[in-house]
Write a structure and sequence with these properties.
There is one protein chain. The protein has 142 residues and is an all-alpha fold. It is built from six helices and no strands. The N and C termini lie far apart (62 Å).
Length: 142
C-alpha cells in the first residue's frame, strides 16, 4: 500500500516533533536510541541510520507503509523511552509536548488499526502527581 501525500506530510511533521525524544546513535553502550525503539517495535530493519531527521522520517514512513500495525507500537515506544531520556538530560517532556504529539498523531492520515479508528486515537498524557494536588487542596482549605 502506497503512502499518500498527506500521510507523507504528516510523517515529516511527526518526525520533526519526535526528533529530540531520543538520540539517533550513541557511542555509549546501553544508551537507548531510535534504532533500539525500532527493534522493540518489531521493525529493526526500517532504521537506516545516518542523518537523524531523514532516518527518523524514513523509519516512520516505512513502518506506516509496510507494517501499519507496528506504527502505534513504535510511537508509544519512542514516547515512553523519550520521557526517561529527556528527564535524564534535564529537559523533561512537558504537557505541551504531549498535546502537540497528540495533535500530530490524531489526523486521520495516520490512523492504523492498532492505534484506533476515526473516532478514537492514541492519546498520550502526562499525569500530574497526586501529592501536588493534595497540597494545593490543603492550602485552599486554610
Amino acid at each position: 500500500m502506497a503512502i499518500s501525500l498527506s500521510e507523507t506530510q504528516a510523517l515529516v511533521e511527526l518526525g520533526k516533533h519526535l526528533y529530540d525524544y531520543l538520540p539517533g546513535s550513541s557511542a555509549w553502550q546501553g544508551t537507548y536510541t531510535f534504532a533500539n525503539a525500532a527493534a522493540d517495535a518489531g521493525v529493526p530493519s526500517y532504521w537506516q541510520g545516518g542523518s537523524k531527521l531523514p532516518a527518523l522520517t524514513k523509519l516512520l514512513e516505512l513502518t506506516l507503509d509496510q507494517q501499519r500495525g507496528a506504527f502505534c507500537r513504535l510511537i508509544e515506544t519512542i514516547v515512553r523511552r523519550g520521557i526517561q531520556y529527556r528527564a535524564r538530560k534535564q529537559n523533561p517532556l512537558t504537557r505541551q509536548d504531549v498535546e502537540d504529539l497528540n495533535s500530530l498523531v490524531r489526523p486521520s492520515a495516520l490512523r492504523s488499526p492498532v492505534c484506533g479508528t476515526k473516532t478514537s486515537s492514541p492519546h498520550f498524557r502526562i499525569r500530574r502527581r497526586p501529592r501536588q494536588r493534595r497540597l494545593i487542596s490543603r492550602q485552599r482549605r486554610r
